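Weekly structure sync, notes
Attendees: PL (lead), two postdocs, one rotation student
Agenda item 3: pending single-chain targets
PL asked that the sequence for the first pending target be pasted directly into the notes so everyone works from the same version. It is reproduced below exactly as submitted, 135 residues in total.
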Amino acid sequence: MATALDNALGPVAAQMINQFGTTVIMRGGEVSSYNPTTGVLSKSQQEQTRKAIISSAKTKAGGTTETFASAGQPLSAQASYDKASFVLIMARAGEAFAPEVGYEVEFNAKKYNVTAVTPNFSGDLVATYDVAVAL
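Predicted structure, written out during the meeting:
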């Protein structure tokens, strides 16, 4: 059950991520639809364009240096686009489906696999997700 804190913080988190985030495409899960006229059951993959804030990124060489983001943009002059792994912050409010391990996130024409999802609660409900992705 949503608390007053959930009702206040969830939408604020979504607004901040939508304002300062960068656009990503998340794909995953399977959705079924049935056509009663033809009797055909169709399956397709969920896909949604959404906003995410880049929290940190690690180098392809496995280096320990992290690049932190400011207002959705990496501080290292876009160098994080070539990194092997990211942590993205995604909002729950207003999104069609939640991220899950095994889903795919496309960012800057590269496809990353979701390797971990950590929900951040505002009370009883999830406000944001920390989504770890890797090439």
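Discussion points:
- The helical segments are 4-20.
- The longest strand covers residues 40-58.
Action: rotation student to compare against the earlier draft before next sync.
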